Amino acid sequence: MIEAQSVAIKYGGRTIIDNITLQVQEGEIVSIIGPNGSGKSTLLKSMSRLIPCERGCVRIGGQEIGTLSSKRVAQLLCMLCQANQTPADMTVEELVSYGRMPHKKWYERLDASDHEVVDWALERTGLVTYRERLVGSLSGGEAQRAWIAMALAQRPKILMLDEPTTYLDIAHQLEVLELIRSINRELGITVVMVLHDLNQASAYSDRICVLRDGNLTMTGSPKQVLTPELIRDVYGVEAEVTLDAADGSLRIHIHRRTEVTSARAQLTSPPLY
């Protein structure tokens, strides 16, 4: 479906992503995890053509993304960043309607079929009663659902999400992740997202990719990837990983930082007076 082939990215002479190859199959939910500064968001942005590759390329359906028009890319994928901004006077319905733009010529207005798609996206995300509300008046979870509704109206094959649960409380985090999973399962939309919470990555991913220092450390199912050894090696913390008897999913319990990490922090921390 979408593939990063030997991708390398540099900022100011510093390598952020180093020779990463990653394939995402149609219908998968793939989560990218790793410590802060490991290149997760950069990789996602390169795969959505928001930033160029220094080396390598990204392909969608076998076609190099750089050879496709912006309109065609928008028909194939939608990228939602951590912080999305709208004009102060934009309503939820107007935001969702923007998802139809990649399917229209510049001079065309929305027709009846477009409005049907918008209505469907609002209904699918539980926002029908919010359609006249200003986006700026919504809670964090409601606003995130509004942006996902816009993505649904776009009718992409691939949905990319950069930390979709950032700034949300626990209840709204689960609400958004349940919505993402239902979109994937019921509509067949491929999902690639960056997550920080390992338990959420375990529960909502078919496959997990681990980045550290701009390199792809490991990829596989949650049970293959989320081991105490890998968590210790990548994050510098001691963790217990258990299997939930009720649903068979993993539960990650973080206990403490490793002695090596703690010692390094003490050496680099400023003195307290």
UniProtKB/TrEMBL annotation:
Domain ABC transporter stretches: 2-238
Location in or out of the cell: Cell membrane
SUPFAM superfamilies: P-loop containing nucleoside triphosphate hydrolases (SSF52540)
GO biological process entries: iron ion transport
Transmembrane segments: none
Region forming the signal peptide: none
SMART domains hit by this protein: AAA
GO molecular function: ATP binding; ATP hydrolysis activity
GO cellular component terms listed in the entry, alphabetical order: plasma membrane
Coiled-coil region(s): none
Keywords assigned by UniProt, alphabetized: ATP-binding, Cell membrane, Ion transport, Iron, Iron transport, Membrane, Nucleotide-binding, Transport
Membrane topology annotation: Peripheral membrane protein
CDD domains found in the cross-reference section: ABC_Iron-Siderophores_B12_Hemin (cd03214)
Pfam families: ABC_tran
Classification via PANTHER family: IRON(3+)-HYDROXAMATE IMPORT ATP-BINDING PROTEIN FHUC (PTHR42771:SF4)
Protein name: ATP-binding cassette domain-containing protein
